[in-house]
Design a protein that fits this description.
Blueprint: E1 3-7, H1 31-39, E2 42-45, H2 53-66, E3 72-79, E4 85-90, E5 111-116, H3 124-145, E6 149-153, H4 159-164, H5 169-174, H6 185-199, H7 235-240, H8 263-276
Parallel strand pairs: 1-2, 1-3, 3-6
Antiparallel strand pairs: 4-5
Helix pairs in contact: 1-8, 2-3, 3-6
Length: 278
Amino acid sequence: MKKLIVSGCSYTAKDYISSAHPEMDCSWPKWPEMLAKKLNMEIVNLAFNGAGNRFILQTLLEAIERTPKEEIGMVIAAWSQANRDDWQEYHRTGPKLKPIQFKNERFVKGFKWDNMRIGRLGSIFGWVRESLLGYITLQNVCKRYNIPLKQFQMIGLYNGWISGLGRTEDEIKAGLPNYVYEGDTEADRQQIRLLIQDYEQFIDEDTFLGYKKTTDLNDKLSPPMWAPIEGSVTLLDKIAYPMELSAGDDIHKISKFDEHPNELGQQKLAEVIYDRMG
C-alpha cells in the first residue's frame, strides 16, 4: 500500500482541538484519512493547527526526501493563508538535555514549529509571491521524482487579509473586533490578481485543484464557490475560490463560534476533493 502524504492547517490536522469548545471530542476522521481510504493508500498527515504555507511546503519536502520514492502514491498540499508566518525553534529537554520529538516535527528531534497569523514582517504582496514560488517548488520536486501531486487552497490565500481578517474562535468568544486592513483593498486585490496571473505560466494547472461545476452540492455550498465561471478556469479562479466550506453552510461546521468542519464537514471535504481529482 502506497503512502498519501498530506500537509495543511487546522482544516486538515488529524488532532484538531477546538479552542472555542476545548471540552469537545473532535477525534472524528479527517478528510485526509477518508481520502486515503478512497484511494487505497496509507495516510501520512503532517498538518498542524495555524499552519502557514512555509510549514506546509517544508514538511512536505522533508517527507518526500525521507520517504523511499517508490512508496509514495501521491502528495497533497492544502494551502493556507499567505499572511501566516511559520518558524522553527530548537529545544533540548529531559535527562542530560537530550532533544525530544515534538508532535509537529516528525523527522528531526528537538525542532518545534510555531506560527502566528498577524504580525508577519513584510506585506501581502511579498507573502503571496512566496506562496506562489512554494507551489512551483513543490510541483518541480514532485516532477523530479515522478510523484503524483495535487494542490489547492484550503482557505483563501489573500482575500481574507485584505478584506479584514476574521476573528479566531477565542476572539469571537471574547467579543473582539475583526482585523482591519489599512491598504487600498480594491487596488491591492487587483495587484495581487496580476501577480498570480504572472506566475500562472509556471504552474501546471492539472496539479492545482479548483473550481469544478457540480449539481448535487449546490444546495450545500453557496456561491461564489459553486457559481458558474464562463470560459476556461484560470489559476486565479482556483485560488480565489478555495476549498473551505461556505459561510452559510452551518450544517457542516462545529458551531457559530467555531467554523471548522465538523464530522459531516470533513466527509464533505473528502467528497469534494475526491470529485475534483477526477
